[in-house]
Amino acid sequence: MRKLISKNKSSSIDIIEKINSVGLAFYKINSYKIVLSLRKICNYHIDKWGALKKGNSVFSDFRLKWDSRNFFKAIKEENYNILFSVKLLITTLLSYPWRFFVKRYILNMLSREIDFNYIISTFIKKHHYKHIFTSVDTYRTPASLGQVIPWHRDGSFTKEFISNGSDGTLPKDTLTLKFFIFLSPKTTYADKNKAPLSSLSVIPNTANISRFLDRLVILGDIPRTDNWSLDMVRNLAKSAQQSQCKCSKEETLLLKNFLSATENCSSDPNVDTTKYDLPNEPGSVVIFDDYSLHRGSPTGTLNSRLVLRVIVLLEKSECILRNTRFDKIH
Ligand SMILES: [Fe+2]
Question: Could you tell me the distance, in angstroms and rounded to a whole number, from the CA of residue 154 to the centre of ligand 1?
């Protein structure tokens, strides 16, 4: 990645420390001008080329056309109209350089506040990761009283790995840092008796539990099952407690703490805890290791939420197993 100029190294050091210790960090963009510019760019792309996704969100990855793979399908639907085909071909061809240009523009603007290069290179140097990609996208979710996405972790096992038994390719050791940059007005009270609603909730200290449980599955100490949702991860933690895998004292305590910290988290927002809700006013940035348990929270009845995301994928060539059983990634 090209060297970006940052004016704020201390905030990046703070982000690294927080990610290292609990898997979660915050930042507040100082310049409101940057927030307004980013909001304009994101809204423009979503309004013009956004595609409908899960939870009625409209998503854009800053291409001119949502997905060039639809090129032939789109031509077919237009009954081979030559003018339409040429126009579509041109926008598809222009889409990639356009996306590259917008991505550079956004990252340059953000790097006045957050030093992505410094953060990435620190994780690479200290933990021997390789930088795979840095992607930028945006989405807008309509106002909602229900959870937009229930509690889950990312980087979960693939179907192939679960079904292939010991012959399956082992999952690689990866670290995905997600920067959620909130750009829309702060979500407000759904009703006056309730606490203000958030847009994203992340449970601290859960990324390493996910990694630890992954290792136990790979070692064959606990069953090889899906590990995407919170309930699935909790079941794996209970299996680890009951299994003969002889967890150390520290590991046993971490499992116990994890189960009690997530006890009241549910897909029903009425019984759900709000203690993991995060700030979401315009300019708030939440940075987290996406192995942490997180959810798209209810946003209330008044406002949609507009989010810009920067996703950094780092990877090691070896499997997770190469590390010790409970190894703090950071
Ligand atoms: Fe996620």
Answer: 5
Neighbours of 6 (CB within 10 A): 18
* Residue 290 CA to ligand 1 centre (angstroms): 7
Across 288-302, b (16+ Cβ under 10 Å) vs e yields bbbbbbbbbbbbbee
The model's pTM: 0.87
Tens digit of each residue's pLDDT (9 = 90 or more) over 110-121: 999 999 999 999
Residue 255 lies in a domain: yes
> How far, in Å, CA of 190 to CA of 115, rounded?
36
> Could you list the residue range(s) of the whole structural domain that residue 234 is in?
9-60+113-322
Interatomic CA distance for residues 164 and 52, integer angstroms: 33
Task: Determine, yes or no, domain membership for 260.
Answer: yes
Domain annotation covers residue 294? yes
Rounded to the nearest angstrom, the distance between the alpha carbon of 72 and the centre of ligand 1 is 31
Domain count, the chain: 1
* Residue 63: other Cβ atoms inside 10 A: 20
